């Protein structure tokens, strides 16, 4: 490629990379149309709850979250026990105290009639509690909220956590804790509405017999809860709503209404798209609770009571986000310094390659719902940057050796990349495969790291083998002495006397 073409292509690439760098990494103040501050893609990407910090131009704290303890039926907190006991009359105190047994050094109290079998917790309660926890875990897993967690506390309570960035934490604890059977009732008001799904008692069909799935969707700024019915479900709703004028369908879990649908005419369709005032998060929340209850809920499930919601600070400290950015920046500067010192102006090719990789990873973390900026994802991106740097150095060294044997620079580059191609390709494929395999089998806490690692290996390999080589190719025509441009040297040959 000649100098003119190289200059045009290099200029265009530089402009594109510069613009993308600003959009991805650089927030700045601006005016007009009420928009006073432009926030970068990095700024608006979801943050892990474990990382704390403040974004430039924002006053809202990023990091930490909210947690609450869910108490199954028959289990109350030690504080509630003491308060109830204190509020009881003298005649009632003895009876109240005899109904409960202290557990976990008084942290919780167990109702004897509901939870205990003699002096020990009954096996039936243990099974019911285990089933309740599994439903909770499934709901949190389906939401894919970074930083969310479900863990057993004091053996028979459940501590649930959601990041501060999740806007529905308060409602989510109440909704996600709803246990029991999914039902649909129809009538002119909730009090008199009759259950139509499942069919009247005496049949063996659960709610899943009438519904295929319940999901959510957001399109053109409007969010929906979508209920896909079977033929039996469609028939049941159509029969109940025949001739309806001003009535309602109530979709409930454990007797609590999650959706109220106004019915002004017969409903005879296989899918219901219910919008109302939902946004993306609230429609996903409602759909998740309804779908899991439809699949797993029974009328005998343990009821859960939500305790006081507590604000949790970021696990790694209030400045962890900034400290992570600084550490990341120092390592990248060290990598660039090595390339410029060892390979001269060829370091610019590595710089462009590295920037393309970082831009691609930032866009992925922002665009993929369950990815977030956290310790796991940042470490995966950093590891990918290290692998990319090692791969670039490997390619440069192979080209250096080819040039040292007397080949021209163009042929040395071509031959060098050809010889190291499969080494670099195999390394990235193996690491990417490990990342994606780990994602499908890993614990929730490791899934973000594993998936990000798989993506990082893909873009690292692509950047090294395609972007890096192309940048070298278009930069080379500007060098009068191509060897000095790369700081390559020929092998010295001793002459015979």
Question: Given the structure, what is the number of helices?
Answer: 15
Strand content: 15-25%
Rg for CA atoms? 31 Å
Question: How many beta-strand elements?
Answer: 21
Termini separation comes to 43 Å
Which shape, going by the Cα principal axes?
elongated
Q: Pairing-aware structural class of the strands and helices?
A: alpha+beta
Which residue ranges are poorly predicted, with pLDDT under 50 across at least 5 consecutive positions?
A: 493-497
- Share of helix, binned: 40-55%
| Biggest β-sheet strands, sense, barrel | 5 strands, antiparallel
Average pLDDT taken over every residue:
86
Protein name: Protein translocase subunit SecD
Keywords: Cell membrane, Membrane, Protein transport, Translocation, Transmembrane, Transmembrane helix, Transport
GO biological process, one term: protein transport
GO cellular component, one term: plasma membrane
List the helices and strands and how they pair.
Elements: H1 3-25, E1 28-29, E2 37-38, H2 41-44, E3 53-54, E4 61-62, E5 65-72, E6 75-77, H3 78-87, H4 90-98, E7 100-103, E8 108-111, H5 112-115, E9 116-117, E10 120-121, H6 123-143, E11 149-153, E12 157-163, H7 169-176, E13 182-187, E14 194-197, E15 211-219, E16 222-229, H8 231-241, E17 247-253, E18 256-263, E19 271-274, H9 280-296, E20 304-306, E21 310-312, H10 320-343, H11 347-367, H12 375-404, H13 409-441, H14 444-475, H15 482-486
Antiparallel strand pairs: 1-2, 3-4, 5-12, 5-20, 5-21, 6-8, 7-8, 9-10, 11-12, 13-14, 13-17, 15-16, 16-19, 17-18
GO biological process, one term: protein transport
Protein name: Protein translocase subunit SecD
Transmembrane segments: 7-28, 320-341, 348-368, 374-399, 420-442, 448-475
């Amino acid at each position: 490629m000649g100098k003119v073409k190289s200059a045009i292509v290099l200029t265009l690439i530089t402009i594109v990379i510069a613009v993308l760098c600003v959009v991805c990494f650089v927030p700045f103040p601006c005016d007009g149309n009420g928009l006073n501050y432009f926030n970068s893609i990095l700024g608006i990407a979801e943050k892990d709850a474990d990382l704390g910090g403040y974004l430039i131009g924002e006053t809202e704290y990023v990091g930490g979250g909210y947690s609450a303890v869910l108490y199954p039926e028959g289990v109350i907190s030690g504080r509630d026990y003491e308060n109830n006991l204190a509020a009881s009359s003298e005649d009632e105190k003895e009876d109240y105290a005899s109904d409960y047994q202290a557990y976990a050094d008084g942290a919780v109290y167990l109702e004897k009639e509901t939870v205990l079998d003699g002096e020990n917790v009954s096996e039936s309660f243990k099974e019911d509690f285990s089933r309740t926890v599994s439903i909770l875990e499934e709901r949190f897993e389906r939401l894919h909220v970074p930083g969310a967690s479900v863990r057993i506390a004091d053996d028979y309570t459940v501590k649930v956590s959601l990041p501060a960035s999740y806007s529905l934490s308060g409602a989510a604890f109440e909704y996600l804790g709803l246990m029991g059977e999914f039902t649909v009732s129809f009538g002119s008001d909730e009090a008199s509405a009759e259950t139509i799904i499942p069919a009247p008692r005496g049949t063996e069909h659960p709610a899943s017999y009438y519904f295929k799935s319940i999901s959510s969707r957001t399109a053109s700024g409007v969010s929906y809860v979508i209920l896909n019915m079977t033929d039996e479900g469609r028939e049941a709703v159509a029969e109940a709503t025949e001739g309806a004028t001003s009535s309602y369908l109530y979709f409930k879990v454990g007797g609590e209404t999650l959706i109220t649908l106004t019915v002004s005419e017969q409903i005879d369709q296989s899918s219901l798209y219910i919008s109302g005032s939902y946004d993306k998060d609230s429609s996903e929340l409602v759909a998740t609770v309804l779908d899991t209850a439809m699949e797993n809920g029974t009328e005998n499930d343990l009821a859960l009571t939500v305790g006081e919601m507590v604000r949790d600070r970021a696990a790694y400290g209030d400045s962890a986000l900034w400290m992570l950015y600084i550490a990341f920046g120092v390592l990248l500067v060290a990598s660039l310094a090595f390339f410029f010192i060892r390979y001269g102006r060829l370091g610019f090719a590595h710089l462009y390659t590295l920037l393309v990789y970082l831009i691609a990873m930032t866009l992925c973390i922002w665009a993929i719902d369950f990815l977030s900026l956290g310790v796991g994802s940042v470490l995966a991106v950093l590891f990918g940057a290290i692998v990319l740097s090692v791969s670039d150095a490997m390619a440069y060294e192979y080209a250096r050796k080819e040039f040292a044997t007397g080949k021209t620079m163009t042929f040395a580059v071509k031959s060098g990349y050809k010889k190291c191609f499969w080494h670099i390709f195999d390394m990235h494929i193996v690491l990417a495969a490990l990342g994606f395999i780990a994602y499908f089998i890993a614990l929730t806490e490791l899934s973000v790291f594993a998936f990000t690692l798989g993506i990082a290996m893909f873009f690292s390999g692509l950047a090294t083998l395609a972007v890096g080589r192309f940048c070298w190719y278009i930069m080379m025509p500007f060098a009068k002495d191509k060897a000095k441009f790369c700081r390559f040297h020929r092998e010295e040959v001793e002459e015979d006397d």
